[in-house]
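User: I'm putting together notes for a lab meeting next week and I want to include a structural view of one of the chains we've been expressing. I don't have a solved structure, so I'd like a prediction I can at least talk through. The sequence is below, exactly as it appears in our construct file.
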Amino acid sequence: MISKGAEEAASATTSPCVQISRPTAFKQQTADFNSELHARPSIYFTGPAIVEHVAFMPIDGVIKEFHDSLEADGTISVRVERHTEFVTVTRVRKLDSEPGGWPESDLLESDFAELAGLNSPLLVCHVSILVLGNPPDKLGPVLETFGFGDTAASLIGGGAAQVCSDFRVRGDNSSRIILFNKDLNAHRLGRMVRRIFEIETYRSMALLGLPEARRLAPLLGGYDTELVQLTNRNLRTPAHQHKQLLEEITALSSHVISATAETRNRFGATAAYAKIVEERIALLRETHVVGFQRFGTFVERRFKPAVRTCEATALRLEQLSRAAMHLLDLLQTRIQVEIEFQNATQIQAMADRAATQVKIQRAVEGFSIIAISYYLLSLLKFVYETADHAGFHFDPMIMLVAVPVVVGSVVITILRVKHALKAES
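Assistant: Thanks for the context. Below is the predicted structure for the 425-residue chain, given as structure tokens.
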């Protein structure tokens, strides 16, 4: 319908500008969005009927295809829907008249799994809704006829129908619901039945996180105790004995992060499914039936504590992870401070050694002045004696004057060299 209307609108306003301004990718994305708005319509029907709804999860947890299918054959209609984590099969079987007891199912769970195209899947929920006519004046005897025990009942759709269920799972793994139709037409009846099925399906999917929360409860208690012990040890352990403590804190942090990674998706799905259940219950527009607890109230009172347990477990995991990382940061800070202190001590020792070397160097410089002066004076003495033997006689005062001159020249030369080296550095 949407794609046809779009084509008619385009043909009615045909122009060169319109034809050249619509990329193929944009048209494809728009078509996908519009298709999503009209995905998974309900099965519309009237009259007394038994509607069975079965949800399965593949063993490998992977849904490879997301297309839905609808088949109708006379009085029987079957819709198969593929969701992110599960596949549902909804089967409507019309009845010739209102039965005096609960109609027996003509299909087994394996038959529903075959309709879903799955081999030995995991059963999520199996719900049957018996759609009857106007609600009776006295509801209790009718419910006893159908084998219902402690029942919750509500007027839904602004009083247009009445829903009843005892939320008990029978021997065939199915729970039963009776829907008395007063003023719902085929479209409203189909949507109302779908909402009830969604409440049961998403409620079951949300509760898949509860076993994980129960499994983690004793582990988290142990992690809490270990974290307290490690924190106290961090206060008492000297910084130079940090290696064992660091390894234990790292191991604890790894366990917490691993548990968080394993359950993050499951707890996130639980929160999302719980939100859908709340929305679907609100869409029922319930009103009270005298003498009975409301359908939605019964679900919420027994469903929300499990959801809150999952939320609390997820929050506890997150807080444990943060606390472990914080403790690890504190220990690493202590280690870093100790390393910096050791580095400062080593630097001070190096500075002291450098100062000693400078003093030694200055002492060596003094000795080098004496040695160089002595060497030069020895050369002058050798020249003087050689000249005297050769017949050249010099005044001995020359050697006496040469001593301070040579020593002063050596001192000046060494000082100039040191000054030049300091200027370059």
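A couple of points you could mention at the meeting. Confidence is low (pLDDT under 50) at residues 1-28. The chain has ten helices and nine strands.

User: Perfect, that's what I needed.
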